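Q: Structure tokens for this one, please.
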Amino acid sequence: MADANRSQPRCPAQRLTATSGEEWMTIEIDPLETQHSDLDDSFRRHGFERLRAAGAPIPAAELVATSPGGIESAQRTLDTLVQRGMAILETEKLVAIDGLSVIPRQHRMLLSGRRLFTWCAADAVGIPAALGSDAEVKTVCPHCSAEIEITIHAGVPRADEELVLWLPTSSCSHVVTQFCPDVNFFCNREHLDAWRSQRGEPEGRSLNADEAAQLGRQWWAYLSPRWPEVQSR
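A: Here is the predicted structure, written as tokens:
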């Protein structure tokens, strides 16, 4: 069983686990068992927090120079994040990292009073869940185009019980372009099934909002104030 407190990778990844009540769910993503152990989590947290606080693009050179893990490690991690589709640079400025974006995307989030965007619906719920923050999330059902709103209080989503999140389980090599586009909330199971039928029944699994939040607490575990303590275990 995976450590529920450790930062779990997204695609490409081996497996993702999350608790749902007393049950453990295991989501197979990539049989290659690729972990992001080569990444400097101190830089990921540094870049994420700076982008979240600024709500605007940040010069990449500035982020690298001020990273607590050192310039060499930070630059190597940034290059790898961009290559894997886990960070986006525009005109040498960071505009998105680990799902959080300051340029408009389909998934919108009011987090701690600041308007931000995310790459996928799981990000929009998972990030506030990991931070234990309040948030207002707005996204769109891919089947009927209806707007979906989710209120998150202290990291816990309050959503319509019929909402269902689709999470692809096929492998990929670039997160933002290959994985994120299909990670969406649907109004209900009927809408998800209709969408999947139109797409040729892609592989994946469905989660409710609470399960999506729990998974997010693992994906963004490095944002936790206790992360240095957890990481050293």
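A few notes: Confidence is low (pLDDT under 50) at residues 1-8, 12-35. DSSP finds eight helices and 14 strands in the chain.
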